[in-house]
Every structure is written in C-alpha cells, then in structure tokens.
What we know:
This protein is an alpha+beta fold. 23% of the residues lie in helices and 38% in strands. Strand 14 and strand 15 (337-352) form a beta hairpin.
Amino acid sequence: MKAKFLKACALLAAPAVMFAASACGGKNIGENKSYFLADDDIYPSVAAPYEEESRAAIERWKSAGGSRKDEAAKEVAAELYAYACYNEEYIDKYVYFSSQTGSTDLGASGSGDVTTQNYKLIIHESESTPGYKYHYTLKKVNEATGTINTFKSLFESARLRFVENTNKLYRFEGDGIRYVEGHGASSEQPLLTCDWETGSDWGTDDPPIVKREGEKLTLAEIEEDIVNNARNGYEAVIHGNVNILADNIVEEAEIAEGTADGHSVYEITMRLNAEAASADEASALMLANANSAEECGWVEDEDGNGPVITFQIWENGLMKNYSIDESWEGKIKVLIISYDGGADSHTDVWYSYSDADTGMTDKLEMLEEAKALKG
C-alpha cells in the first residue's frame, strides 16, 4: 500500500460562503503539489495519548462472552472511535488526506456530483515554540444540472490555510481546479490539483498551533466536549458529525483483528441508527453546520441501512483510516434560498505519522516563494 493516493469521495455541501472563493489580485505560486501519503501502512512513530484507554477497551471486548459480546462490541467500537479522534488534540504530529465523492439532489431545482479533497498536516509544539498547520480543501463539480449548474463557480473552491511557527497565518486561494492526468473523476484513485495564488490574511496574527491545554479528557468529558462544540458551532473534533457516544446511535458493531507492519490493527464497522442519530441534538447540529443545511437528518438507504462508519486503528489506538457511507435529507441552502433536498456520500480518509509524510520542507519552500512574490 505504499504511495497510495487517497481515493474515494465528496459530498456537495451547499456553499453559503462560496463568494470568497475568488483569488483575484493574488500572486501565482503554481500548481498544487498533489500530495499523497507514502507511509499510511507504517506503524506510528509518535506516542498515542489514549493508548492505555484504547487497549483497555479492546481487552474488555475480547474478554466479553456469550450474549454480552455483541453489546460489548457496540460500546467498545464507539469508545475506540472517540479516543482515535481525540488523540489528534494531543498528539505531536499527524497528517491525513481525505477524498469524498457524493451527490446532492435538489429535486426539480437540479442536482450535482462533486469531489472534495482535504489534506491536513498538524505539528503540535508548545506556547514557547509554536507548531505548524497546513490544510487545504479542493472542491470540483463533476456533473450538475439546474441551480447547481447555474451557480457552478460558487460550488467549486480551493483554499489553503498555512500557519507557520511565527504564529502568522497565510491564506492561499486556488484557481483552475482540475484532475491530475490519469487520476480523473472516473478513475479508481481520483486526485485533484490547482494553481495556488496568494490570498487575504497574509501574515496576520493567528493563535499558536499547540496541543490541547490541560489534562486529556475522560470519556465522559469527551462526550460533553462533543455536545459543547456542536452547540457553539465550533469545529468538531469527532469525525463524521455524529455524537458516537450518545445512547442508541450505534446499532450494531463488528470488530476484527489483523496485522500491519508487524503490529496489530483492529478494523471496526459501526452501523448507526439513522433515527437515533437525527434525534440527537449534537449530531443534528453538526450535520447541519457541516453542510449548510437546516432541519436535516440521516435517512436509511434503499437497503434499510443507516450510516456506516468503518475504521481501522493501530494497536495503540491511533487512527489508521476510516470511511463513512451516509445519506441525509433536509433544507439545503444555496445562496440565500433553501431547497428541500438530500445527499449521498462516501468518504475515505488515511493517516500517517512518519517523518517523511509530516515533513515541512516542501511546504515551507512554497511559503517562502510566495512571500517573495507577494513582496
């Protein structure tokens, strides 16, 4: 699995903020680097903050017997997912690359198929020695009809947020969003690229990239944090917009053990209850915030299944990869108008923790070139 491009997915999130997509007036830095992860199958070189808790949860599942086994699998699966997500708040460094493919249907008003890709590299340091954040998002409309086709330029965007260790933020905007040759929308491994230009917020002050303050959260505090972030509209730490620790959300779970790079890897599949997830306050808020939607909720697919989250963790609890299949319906905002509609999407995300994949050399070279051009 060396040098595996992250393949999969992109849900069309209706763009209430797409007016900011233009890169007019910036300095052209050149084509996107088209990053990929070379070491997603290499055992993490960093410590896992929730290793002890994750190992204990796994042992609890292994020791459960009889009728208790299925219930234990549900509880442990939810815990492992929460720990894996919240590891990212305290870990020294990580990088992930995600690709999402999905479609949105606005009924008589049109439909669209979009690919969205994210690359996020975080290096946590301390208040005295801040770290780095390099995060880009590219959205490409593959097919569109009606309203979505009319406002296609508003649905496509490329943005890069670069925070260097001087606590300065540099924003880039992308133009000419396209597929890398041989990795188009119909290929097994689609990969987007663009031409970056210097944007706004150039060299402005930004909070330092540091680990979460204080002692790491307990499981109960993680659930409280998920709810508080959702209520306040903060960026969710939990992936998938689901309060995975809420009652009755995990309907069924399976856990299997394998190996990679000489270490145990656990693959967990969680089938969620669409009705319970939609009724949960935090989950509904996160779904709405992430998709510029209102009055939305998950729905079952044609086979009667709710959302499915499949993820792999290393034996120390760090996330190796995850995928999400989901369908939801609600009022989707396009500009200032809300449409009754729905969306189906599949998301794949891979992680790496190696020195090679988390290296900053090429990113810093890009930034220095941009600074020189910007003047």
